[in-house]
Design goal:
Bound molecules: 2-acetamido-2-deoxy-beta-D-glucopyranose
Family: Belongs to the glycosyl hydrolase 32 family.
GO molecular function: hydrolase activity, hydrolyzing O-glycosyl compounds
Distance between the termini: 49 Å
CATH architecture of one domain: Sandwich
Structural class: mainly beta
Number of strands: 38
CATH class of one domain: Mainly Beta
CATH superfamily of one domain: Exo-inulinase, domain 1
Radius of gyration: 23 Å
Helix content: under 10%
GO biological process, one term: carbohydrate metabolic process
Protein name: Beta-fructofuranosidase, insoluble isoenzyme CWINV1
Strand content: 35-45%
Pfam family, one: Glyco_hydro_32C
Number of helices: 4
Length: 569
C-alpha cells in the first residue's frame, strides 16, 4: 500500500470503547467532564466515528455523511455514516447510508459528494474499493424521495461508473466532487488523482449522470504536489451577492501535505478551461482555508439561506495511545460561511450565524480599554473552556513597528521563532485561552505588526508551545499573514473555544487558524481566559465580548430529548 493511501486511511482510525453500548452517552458532558474526559468537545460535531464525506442541504434538512467502521476502531469495512440537522449545530445520527456490500465497493465505501439533480433528486457519487482493490467511482440515489431524512440509499446497477483505465493508477483515483451542469446541459465532475507524480483533478462529462467520458486534459494539475484528495470546485460570490454560476470566479481546492489549499480563477464552461490568478504553493500567495489543523474539507451551497458553507475535518494532535484512552479521535470544524473577500484575491470565512444561538446570557462586555505595554488582564464570568470571544484592537500609530525581513516567507516558522514569549514592539497582543491560573499553561492567539518597504505586514499566530504541561503532544505554533492594512483598518479576532479545540478568525475571517489543545491544568472550571499585550507600545481594545457557550445536542435518533429540534428556536 502506498504512503499516500495510508495517510488517507488514518482519517478513519478512531474511537475505541464508546461504540459498544450507546453513542448517546457521548453527548452528556456530565458523564465525561469529571471522569477523565476533559478534552471532549461540547458544541463541535463528532460522529460516532469520524471523517466527513459530502454535506448537503435538501428540502429543509442538512445532511452530513462521514466515514465509519461499525465493527471496530481500526480502519476497515468503511461505510457512509449519516447525520441530519435543521440548524448545522444540533445533530441526529441516523442509520448507515452506504455499506460495502457489492463487488464495486466490497473493500470500502470511501469519500465522495452529493449533487442535487434537476427535479430535486439528490445523488451521491462516491469512491468504492472494488474486489481487486481498485478505486472506482459509483452512484447511489435515495430509495424513497418522500422520506424527509433520505435514510435509505440504493446503488445503481451500472456501477462502477468510472474505473481507472490507461494511465490512471488504481491507488490514486478517488473523491469525486459535487457535479455541475454546463450551459450545454452536460454534467461535469472532478476526481482527485496522481499521474506521473503530479496531483490533479481529472474531469469527466456525462449526459445522463451514468455514462461518463474522461476529457483529454484534467481541469488543473500541479507538478509541486502529489495526490490531490477531496478536490472541490465551486463558484464564489462576494458578500451579500447571490452565487451566480459562470459569472463569478471559481475556487479550486485540493487536499495535500495535510493541508487544504485553494486557488481562484475564471472558469469557461464552453471549453472547460480554468484560468488561474495564482497557482498552488506559489511563493507569497499560497492560499489556505486554515493555517492550523484542518483537512479534507468540503463545501456545499445552502440554497435556502443563499450561502456557501465550508466544513473541515480537524484531527487530533495527541498520540494514538491518547486517542485509544479517550476513546475517540477527530471532529468537525464549526461550519463556516465563505465569500470572496473585497480584494477579490482570497476567501473570507465566518462561523455560521446559527452557532450564536449557543451563546448564553453570561457575557463579558468591555469597551475602550487600554492594554498597557507588557500587561495581562483576565476576562471573567464566562466558562473559559467553552466560549466564543470577539475582540477589536486599535493599535494607534505605527511609527514604532519592527522592520520586516523579506526572507520571512513562512508565517508558521515566524510564529515559532517569535512565539508569544518573545517581546516585540507592536505586539504580540491578543488572547490567552485555555490558560491556567498562574499562566503556566496558555494558548496564545496574537498579532504582530511589522513594517516592510512598501506596506505594513500583519502576522497572526496561534501558539501552542506552552499549551500543556503534558509531554507527547504536538505543540505547533501556527501562523498566517493577514491581508489587511493596519493604517486603515482595526484588527479583529474571534475565537471559538471548546475544551480541546480553538478555532480563530483573524481580520474578520481573512486568516483562520484551528488548533487542538490538551491542557493538564486548564480544564473545565480551571480554565481561564485573558487578554494580553507583550509589545513595548500600548494597544487599545475598542470592544471585547466573551460568551459562555451552551452544549449542542448531538445524539442518535432514539436518544433525542426533544423532537427534531432547531425549528422551535
Ligand atoms: C469487517 O466486518 C466483518 C463482519 O462483517 C468483521 O468480521 C471484520 O473483522 C471487520 N473488519 C474490520 C477491520 O473491522
Ligand atoms: C416513503 O417515505 C414516506 C414518508 O416517510 C412513507 O410514508 C412511505 O411509506 C415510504 N415508502 C416506502 C415504499 O417505504
Ligand atoms: C461519450 O463518448 C461517446 C462515445 O465516444 C459519445 O457517443 C458520447 O456522446 C460522449 N458523451 C459525452 C457527454 O461527451
Ligand atoms: C520562544 O521562542 C524563543 C526564541 O525563539 C525560544 O528561546 C523559546 O524557547 C520559545 N519558547 C517556547 C516555549 O517554545
Amino acid at each position: 500500500m502506498s504512503v499516500i493511501q495510508v495517510i488517507c486511511l488514518l482519517f478513519v482510525l478512531v474511537s475505541h470503547g464508546i461504540e459498544g453500548s450507546d453513542h448517546g452517552q457521548r453527548t452528556q458532558r456530565s458523564l465525561y467532564t469529571s471522569k477523565g474526559q476533559p478534552y471532549r468537545t461540547a458544541y463541535h460535531f463528532q460522529p460516532p466515528k469520524n471523517w466527513m464525506n459530502g454535506p448537503m442541504y435538501y428540502k429543509g434538512v442538512y445532511h452530513l455523511f462521514y466515514q465509519y467502521n461499525p465493527y471496530s476502531a481500526v480502519w476497515g469495512n468503511i461505510t457512509w455514516g449519516h447525520s441530519i440537522s435543521y440548524d448545522l449545530i444540533n445533530w441526529v445520527h441516523l442509520d448507515i447510508a452506504l455499506n460495502p456490500t457489492d463487488p464495486f465497493d466490497i473493500n470500502g465505501c470511501w469519500s465522495g459528494s452529493a449533487t442535487i439533480l434537476p427535479d430535486q433528486k439528490p445523488a451521491i457519487l462516491y469512491t468504492g474499493r472494488d474486489t481487486e482493490n481498485r478505486q472506482v467511482q459509483n452512484l447511489a440515489v435515495p430509495k424513497n424521495l418522500s422520506d424527509p431524512f433520505l435514510r435509505e440509499w440504493s446503488k445503481t446497477p451500472h456501477n462502477p461508473l468510472m474505473a481507472p483505465t490507461n494511465d490512471i493508477d488504481p491507488d490514486f483515483f478517488r473523491d469525486p466532487t459535487t457535479a455541475w451542469l454546463g450551459p450545454d446541459k452536460i454534467w461535469r465532475v472532478l476526481v482527485g488523482a496522481q499521474i506521473d507524480g503530479k496531483g490533479m483533478a481529472i474531469l469527466y462529462k456525462s449526459k445522463d449522470f451514468v455514462k461518463w467520458n474522461r476529457t483529454k486534459n484534467p481541469l488543473h494539475s500541479s507538478t509541486k504536489t502529489k495526490m490531490w484528495e477531496c478536490p472541490d470546485f465551486y463558484p464564489i460570490n462576494g458578500k451579500d451577492q447571490v452565487e451566480d454560476q459562470f459569472k463569478t470566479k471559481y475556487v479550486l481546492k485540493a487536499s495535500f501535505h495535510d493541508q487544504d489549499h485553494y486557488i481562484v480563477g475564471k472558469y469557461e464552461p464552453e471549453t472547460d478551461t480554468y484560468e488561474i490568478e495564482s497557482d498552488f504553493l506559489d511563493d507569497g500567495s499560497d492560499l489556505r482555508y486554515d493555517f492550523g489543523k484542518f483537512y479534507a474539507s468540503k463545501t456545499f451551497y445552502d440554497s435556502e439561506k443563499k450561502r456557501r458553507i465550508l466544513w473541515g475535518w480537524v484531527a487530533e494532535s495527541d498520540s494514538e495511545a491518547d486517542d485509544k484512552n479517550k476513546g475517540w479521535s477527530g471532529l468537525q470544524s464549526i461550519p463556516r460561511s465563505i465569500v470572496l473577500g473585497k480584494s477579490g484575491r482570497q476567501l473570507v470565512q465566518w462561523p455560521v450565524k446559527e452557532v450564536e444561538r449557543l451563546r448564553s446570557k453570561e457575557v463579558f462586555d468591555l469597551r475602550n480599554k487600554e492594554v498597557k505595554r507588557r500587561s495581562v488582564f483576565e476576562i471573567t464570568g464566562v466558562t473559559a473552556s467553552q466560549a466564543d470571544v470577539e475582540v477589536t484592537f486599535d493599535v494607534g500609530g505605527l511609527e514604532k513597528a519592527e522592520l520586516f525581513d523579506p526572507s520571512w516567507v513562512d508565517p508558521q516558522l515566524l510564529c515559532d521563532q517569535k512565539n508569544a514569549s518573545v517581546r516585540g514592539k507592536i505586539g504580540p497582543f491578543g488572547l490567552l485561552v485555555l490558560a491556567s491560573k498562574e499562566l503556566t499553561e496558555q494558548t496564545a492567539i496574537f498579532f504582530r505588526i511589522f513594517e516592510s518597504s512598501d506596506k505594513y505586514v500583519v502576522l497572526m499566530c496561534s501558539d501552542q508551545s506552552r499549551s500543556s504541561l503534558r509531554g507527547g503532544l504536538k505543540k505547533t505554533a501556527y501562523g498566517a499573514f493577514v491581508d489587511l492594512d493596519p493604517n486603515k483598518e482595526k484588527i479583529t479576532l474571534r475565537s471559538l473555544i471548546d475544551h480541546s479545540i480553538v478555532e480563530s478568525f483573524g481580520g474578520e475571517g481573512r486568516s483562520c487558524i484551528t488548533a487542538r489543545v490538551y491542557p493538564k491544568l486548564a480544564i473545565d472550571k480551571e480554565a481561564h481566559l485573558y487578554a494580553f499585550n507583550y509589545g513595548s507600545k500600548s494597544v487599545k481594545i475598542l470592544k471585547l465580548n466573551a460568551w459562555s457557550m451552551k452544549s449542542a445536542q448531538i445524539v442518535p435518533m432514539k436518544r433525542r430529548r426533544r423532537p427534531i429540534y432547531g425549528r422551535e428556536e
